[in-house]
Design brief:
The structure holds two protein chains of two kinds.
Chain A lengths: L1 E10 L2 E11 L4 E5 L6 H8 L7 E6 L8 E3 L11 E4 L13 H6 L9 H14 L16 H13 L5 E5 L7 H18 L2 E5 L3 H7 L2 E6 L2 E7 H6 L4 H12 L19
Parallel strand pairs in A: 3-8, 3-9, 6-7, 7-8
Antiparallel strand pairs in A: 1-2, 1-4, 4-5, 9-10
Helix pairs in contact in A: 3-4, 4-5
Chain B lengths: L4 H4 L4 H11 L1 H23 L31 H37 L3 H13 L3 H12 L3 H28 L2 H8 L4 H37 L11 H8 L8 H28 L4
Helix pairs in contact in B: 3-4, 3-11, 4-5, 4-7, 4-9, 4-11, 5-7, 6-7, 7-9, 8-9, 9-10, 9-11, 10-11
The chains are: A alpha/beta, B mainly alpha.
């Protein structure tokens, strides 16, 4: 379980995040939505220690006494334990001169495993993301965007994390692939009992898969609601505006019926 | 957070090098002529009946003929043989010097660009102060101060050639160091040296290769220049610049003493420079 309390991030006296609080229970998905520049990615970076926290705290592993980490303002090591980050642009997130298999097993750098064990873990991870074993030998340039994103997910998964942070995992992909990868993500979550924080523009995805919604605007939490409640009656005007806009664009069904459908798939 | 078209382009440099070599006749020609020069030098050394340092006073300043293709110099030494021996100095020693410069500069640049903090300003100010002196003049000064010899020339040339690599490597390291795949490696808590070695250095190699070819040809000129001025390779060793110096007093009466070493320098430097230019056009990263 992850608990974020009153998190504040400032850079050069510019407030990027103000008073963000939420909790994420095991096995749940939190979708962070909001316009560009609203602080969605900053939130992930702050969680991962890539940006300094100015106020508040991040507590991780609360359900396992003894394994709890509590991060407060001040210098801290980079990376939350048992947490992986899948980025928006899968091609940029992979070293162009490193084969996919090597990129995936790099997550096991500190795991004390021998070659064979790593090989097995690699094959299992590839299987989990529906990639053929021979994809391990490809360079990023030889992968499609969808395959590359699957490699990135496998890279996160192989380390057996509890929590995966997704930063707009689908926005670089075309509609069909969006839908497939959305499903893969959901299946992996179920089978491995993971928690997700998914930053997304795609309200269709959020409606289909999120348990909770965190709506950010200018670094301030506009709404923090259960997904059903948010799509029925959002806690802020900005939220209803967003939902309305998504309906007009056809990214959300007219009725707030819960359908597993992403923005692209509706087109 | 949108994707630029460049992100989707294949960036696999290994294939690009292969492609450039497979498709481009000009690059093939240049690489072949470079290989030809080296092969010619080796074959000539094995076949020539003359010794590059043995004087033959009965046959001084002979013009080109069938027995002495490029003629003989003021001590009756065969110029063709001396040029072949000189290629060892010019091509081989220059290769060693520019490689040493590239290695030192790359290490400095990587440290400055990735370690950052105190290392960056410190290393870059040192680099700047080396940059403050014009290359060749600094090399002349250094070899002049520590005394003319081949070893000192190597020290002088390495100490003026590494800064370009340091600057280039630092800049590229800074930009690559912020890329997503490096962030992922940091999140995996890879040791810094491993991130540099596995993720940053391989992505710099094409840019370094291009700079290295131009550094190589410049070093050939610098070695010849220093030797011509008497600071470099010392007589009786055959070196192209030193041969030019030897031939200078006879420029009017026996111009072949200067023409052939001069041509050797010209052809070699031109071939390396053109190859470097072609590589630059085809391989250098758009960053």
């Amino acid at each position: 379980m992850l608990a974020v309390r009153n998190l504040g991030v400032e850079v050069d006296n510019v407030v990027l995040l103000h008073d963000v609080s939420f909790t994420l229970k095991k096995g749940r998905t939190l979708c962070v939505v909001g316009e560009s520049g609203s602080g969605k990615t900053t939130l992930l970076k702050a969680l991962q220690g890539l940006m300094p926290i100015c106020r508040g705290s991040v507590e991780h592993g609360l359900d396992r006494p003894g394994a709890t980490t509590r991060q407060k303002p001040g210098p801290r090591p980079i990376g939350l334990p048992d947490t992986k980050w899948v980025m928006q642009n899968p091609i940029a997130a992979l070293n162009p001169l490193q084969k996919a298999g090597a990129a995936i097993t790099e997550s096991l750098h500190h795991a004390k495993l021998d070659r064979n064990a790593k090989q097995e873990a690699l094959l299992a991870a590839l299987g989990n993301v529906d990639l053929l074993p021979e994809m391990a030998l490809r360079y990023p340039a030889q992968l499609s965007l969808g395959q590359a994103q699957r490699v990135c997910i496998a890279r996160a998964l192989i380390a057996k994390p509890e929590l995966i942070l997704f930063d707009e995992p689908l926005s670089a992909l075309d509609a069909v692939v969006q839908k497939q990868i959305g499903r893969t993500m959901e299946r992996i979550k179920q089978t491995h009992g993971l928690s997700y924080i998914v930053v997304t523009h795609d309200l269709g995805y959020a409606q289909a898969y999120a348990d909770d919604i965190l709506l950010l605007r200018n670094g301030i939490v506009e709404a923090y609601q259960a997904s059903n409640a948010f799509f029925r009656s959002p806690a802020s005007d900005y939220g209803s505006e967003l939902i309305e806009a998504a309906r007009v664009l056809g990214c959300l069904p007219e009725e707030a019926a819960v359908q597993p459908m992403t923005c692209g798939a509706a087109q | 957070m949108t994707l630029s078209p460049a992100d989707a382009l294949p960036v696999q440099t290994k294939n690009r090098l292969r492609q450039a070599m497979a498709q481009d006749r000009f690059v093939q020609f240049l690489l072949l002529s470079l290989a030809g020069l080296v092969a010619l030098a080796v074959a000539g050394l094995l076949l020539t009946p003359y010794d590059p340092t043995e004087a033959d006073f009965l046959d001084r300043l002979a013009p080109p003929s069938l027995s002495h293709w490029f003629g003989t110099d003021q001590l009756g030494r065969d110029i063709a043989t001396r040029i072949l021996y000189g290629s060892g100095w010019s091509i081989g020693l220059a290769l060693i010097v520019s490689t040493a410069g590239a290695v030192i500069g790359t290490i400095v640049g990587l440290m400055a660009g990735y370690v950052g903090r105190w290392a960056d300003p410190l290393l870059m100010r040192v680099t700047d102060s080396f940059f403050a002196f014009p290359e060749l003049i600094a090399a002349i000064a250094i070899s002049g101060i520590i005394g003319p010899s081949t070893n000192n020339m190597v020290i002088a040339l390495v100490s003026v050639s590494w800064m370009k690599f340091a600057r280039l490597t630092r800049t590229l390291t800074l930009s690559i160091g912020h890329k997503d795949f490096v962030v992922q490696a940091r999140l995996n808590r890879l040791p810094q040296w491993l991130i540099l070695w596995r993720h940053i250095l391989p992505n710099l190699r094409m840019s370094i290769l291009v700079l290295w070819t131009s550094s190589w040809s410049k070093t050939i000129l610098a070695i010849s220049g220093l030797s011509f001025l008497g600071f470099g390779v010392q007589p009786p060793q055959a070196e192209w610049g030193a041969m030019l110096l030897d031939g200078k007093p006879y420029m009017q009466t026996a111009p072949h003493l200067m023409i052939f070493p001069g041509l050797a320098i010209l052809v070699t430097v031109l071939a390396i420079n053109l190859t470097g230019d072609q590589l630059r056009d085809r391989l250098q990263d758009p960053t």
